[in-house]
């Protein structure tokens, strides 16, 4: 009788445990927004790793010897990077031997988004506004892992047909990574006597004279005469500016991507708080985050209204690989 009672008690315990597991399983949802659901969202590290992987996939590598003198490297898209070996230094000393070069070229908004390299330029008053790009570039020269400098700059020859032809309003910009890990562009002051910090178009090419290694950009500010406004964007619960981003793709502009760089933790809203979005602008608002080493995203066509608030829900999101999302973003009007 005792054995039967003990067996029944054990059976009740097992059944109770199984019932508890079932309840927990059905009540937990990685992406649910229903009341009572336990939200499991990506961490800031998850999202950063996804963007870092995208940038790594876009990085090209070259190698040359300083004995080669003046070298010209040609990228996958036909950009020519010309570097004088005699100008390279390490801690102020001339460099000899093998040099490694990393190079990134971004011409379309799909790659700009996945690599988190939007085209937002700093205005004289400190506000940030959309830039239309003739190409974003990263050039880094190293020797045995140590970063090198150049005391006479370097040059790039950039096919202008990659961004719709020569635009003589283009100037050079220098990219800086801010404390949040976002890239912001500052105008380069040209050094006229040496020709550094300048860009000009001739034929179907841009010729750029760059002062230092790092991020650089051939750009101009987007221009629209219509009245401007501020917009705000609400994203699904559990997301903020550490584990997600919001971008704006302007219809008709294939080589520029705006970024809503402000997030209010009290309201849960992303914002373009400079008041520089044209009223009546036709665009697509893009919400992007990480989901299991893939991209989770939502895209909403919008005609900007004054003080607009755009809302994304969980049901509007989809999952895509990096390649798929790049194709989707590049396919926007």
Care to give the gist of this entry?
The chain has 333 residues and is of the alpha+beta class. Helices cover 17% and strands 45% of the residues.
Outline the structure in words:
By secondary structure, this protein is α+β, with helices and mostly antiparallel strands. It has 2 domains: 51-221, Sandwich (Chondroitinase Ac, Chain A, domain 3); 224-330, Sandwich (Immunoglobulin-like), CATH 2.60.40. Helix content is 17%, strand content 45%. It contains 4 helices and 27 strands. It has helices at 2-27, 44-57, 109-114, 322-330; strands at 28-29, 38-39, 59-65, 70-74, 80-84, 88-90, 93-94, 98-106, 120-122, 128-143, 146-147, 149-150, 154-159, 171-177, 183-187, 198-202, 205-210, 214-221, 228-234, 244-250, 258-259, 262-264, 269-278, 282-291, 294-303, 309-311, 318-320. The strands form 6 sheets. Strands 3, 8, 9, 10, 11, 14, 15 and 18 form an 8-stranded antiparallel beta sheet that branches. Strands 4-5-13-17-16 form a 5-stranded antiparallel beta sheet, with no helix packed on it. Strands 21-20-24-25-27 form a 5-stranded antiparallel beta sheet. β9 (120-122) and β10 form a beta hairpin. The longest helix has 26 residues, at 2-27. It is globular. It starts with a helix and ends with a helix. Mean pLDDT is 90; it is low at 1-9 and 14-35.
Q: Could you list the spans in which at least 5 consecutive residues all have pLDDT below 50?
A: 1-9, 14-35
**Any idea of the CATH topology of the largest domain?**
Chondroitinase Ac, Chain A, domain 3
Count of helix runs: 4
The helix content is 10-25%
Shape: globular
Number of separate strands: 27
């Amino acid at each position: 009788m005792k054995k039967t009672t003990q067996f029944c008690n054990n059976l009740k315990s097992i059944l109770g445990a199984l019932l508890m597991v079932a309840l927990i399983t059905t009540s937990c949802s990685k992406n649910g927004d229903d009341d009572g659901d336990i939200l499991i969202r990506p961490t800031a590290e998850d999202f950063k790793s996804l963007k870092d992987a995208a940038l790594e996939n876009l990085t090209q590598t070259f190698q040359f010897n300083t004995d080669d003198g003046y070298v010209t490297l040609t990228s996958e898209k036909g950009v020519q990077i010309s570097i004088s070996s005699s100008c390279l230094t390490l801690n102020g000393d001339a460099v000899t031997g093998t040099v490694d070069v990393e190079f990134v070229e971004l011409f379309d908004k799909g790659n700009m988004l996945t690599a988190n390299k939007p085209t937002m330029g700093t205005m004289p008053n400190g506000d940030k506004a959309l830039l239309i790009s003739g190409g974003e570039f990263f050039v880094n020269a190293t020797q045995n892992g140590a970063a090198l400098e150049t005391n006479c700059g370097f040059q790039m020859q950039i096919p202008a047909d990659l961004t719709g032809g020569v635009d003589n309003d283009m100037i050079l910009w220098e990219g800086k990574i801010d404390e949040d890990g976002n890239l912001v562009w500052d105008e380069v002051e040209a050094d006229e006597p040496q020709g550094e910090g300048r860009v000009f178009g001739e034929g179907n090419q841009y010729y750029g004279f760059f002062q230092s290694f790092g991020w650089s950009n051939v750009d101009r500010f987007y221009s629209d005469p219509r009245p401007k406004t501020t917009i705000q964007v609400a994203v699904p619960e559990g997301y903020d500016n550490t584990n997600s981003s919001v971008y704006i793709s302007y219809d008709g502009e294939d080589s520029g991507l705006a970024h809503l760089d402000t997030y209010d933790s009290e309201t849960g809203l992303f914002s373009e708080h400079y008041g520089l979005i044209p009223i009546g602008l036709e665009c697509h608002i893009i919400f992007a985050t990480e989901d299991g080493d893939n991209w989770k995203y939502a895209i909403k066509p919008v005609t900007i209204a004054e003080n607009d608030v755009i809302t994304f829900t969980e049901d509007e999101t989809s999952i895509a690989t990096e390649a798929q999302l790049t194709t989707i973003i590049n396919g926007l009007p």
